[in-house]
Amino acid sequence: MTVLVASDLDRTLIYSANALALAGPDAEAPRLLCVEVYESRPLSYLTETAARLLAELGDAAVFVPTTTRTREQYRRISLPGPAPAYAICANGGHLLVDGETDHDWHASVTARLAAECAPLSEVRAHLERTADPVWTRKHRVAEDLFAYLVVERELLPEEWVKELAVWAENRGWTVSLQGRKIYAVPKPLTKSAAMREVARRTGADLTLAAGDSLLDADLLLAADRSWRPGHGELADADWTAPGVTALPERGVVAGEEILREFLKAANPPG
Q1: 167 in Cβ contact with 126 (< 8 Å)
Q2: What digits encode the pLDDT tens for the residues 116-163?
Q3: CA contacts within 13 A on the Cβ side of 252
Q4: CATH homologous superfamily of domain 3-110+189-266?
Q5: 118-186 CATH pick, 3.90.1070, 3.40.309, 2.60.40, 3.40.1000
Q6: Disulfide-capable partner of 46 in 10, 50, 205, 237 (CB 3.0 to 4.6 Å)?
């Protein structure tokens, strides 16, 4: 049986220092492994136990990192285990095959965006016009596919985010607030579509997924079985669905538990 595991990365399997959510005395904290360094600074971690589990998973299933990160941002990560044959970047806008971009897939995605939602230029202009410089630190465009802001979360007005979500909804876009970033992403740009394509190519009999944010919901719904941690947008909304398991664990230990669940599903007893 071929098992495909499509998992979000940030705040699902790997965690920044601010997202670790470690509790209890330092002496009892799990040992961590750094998996991302940028500009000579360590950025992302998983537990050493999670690293071992991920290496085991790479031997038991087709593991597909599935992220909203750009290709450049994804390539900064060094995950334990075999190098993934497939990776999904830019929220499904790019499919990497043995590390190389599948240009036919990208062309099909951009054609769908042009036909089904408002253009990126309109969304960028709206963000630049309405985002207050008092709490906006950066305006960014990812892979010419979607936009995001880096904000001071404690200064960000909740009402502005709600208004942006309504405005975007009417134009075929989705808004997601993750940590210090606000994403505006076209609705046709989905992780689930890319996962289905990899499942088709690999002949997967069983698909498993995990994620923590609104942008992961379609991925979790598309998989045969899926998990979400006890933190993040989906947990905050108490979101669940048939086939989706809501785990109580939060922070980096949730990533460890998700990998245990993947392995149990990929290696059923008997």
Answers
A1: yes
A2: 999 999 999 999 999 999 999 999 999 999 999 999 999 999 999 999
A3: 25
A4: HAD superfamily/HAD-like (3.40.50.1000)
A5: 3.90.1070
A6: 50
